[in-house]
Amino acid sequence: GPHVSQLLEDLAAHAGAPAPPRGLRAASAGAAMARARTCYDHLAGALGVSVTDALLRRGLLQESTGFSVTDAGLAWFGELGLDLSARPGSRRPMARSCLDWTERRPHLAGRAGAALCTYVLERGWCEHIGSRRALRVTGPGAQGLAELLGLRPEEYARPYGQETAA
Length: 166
Fold this sequence. Notes:
Blueprint: H1 2-13, H2 24-35, E1 37-39, E2 42-44, H3 45-57, E3 61-63, E4 67-69, H4 71-79, E5 96-99, E6 106-109, H5 110-122, E7 126-128, E8 135-137, H6 139-149, H7 153-156
Antiparallel strand pairs: 1-2, 3-4, 5-6, 7-8
Protein name: ArsR family transcriptional regulator
Organism: Streptomyces nanshensis
C-alpha cells in the first residue's frame, strides 16, 4: 500500500548512484527511463520533475513538507477538465511529493499527478516506448507542454546523467 511505497522511496533517497549499464541496449533503456517514464500512475524522470518545477514556478503547487495544490492550481486543473476530488472512501492525497530515483528530486504524485499523467497520455502528448513505463514526448506533446507550462524540450529531453543548470 501507500506506506510501503513511501518506505521504498525513503530508502531510495539514501541509495548510491545507479550502477552503469552493462551494454548499449541497457544504456538506451536507462536513458529513456531517465528522460520520461511513469512512476505508478504519474509522470517521472526529467519530464516529471520539469513538469513539477513548472507547476511550482507558476504558483499552481506549493512545497513545504510536501506538495499541495494552490487555489490557482485547483482552478488550472479545473480549466483542463481534471477533477481532483477524492473518490468516496479514498485516502489518497490530492498532491504528494515522490522522490525521483534518476533525478534525485521530487516529482508530483497523488490525484493531481495521476490526472496530469492521464491528460498527457490521452492527448497523445506522450507515448509508451519499449517497456510499459518508458515514455517519449511526441511533437504535439512538446508543443502542448510549451503552451501549457512554458516547458522547452531541453528541460526534459537531456541525455541520461547530464545535470541541469539550476
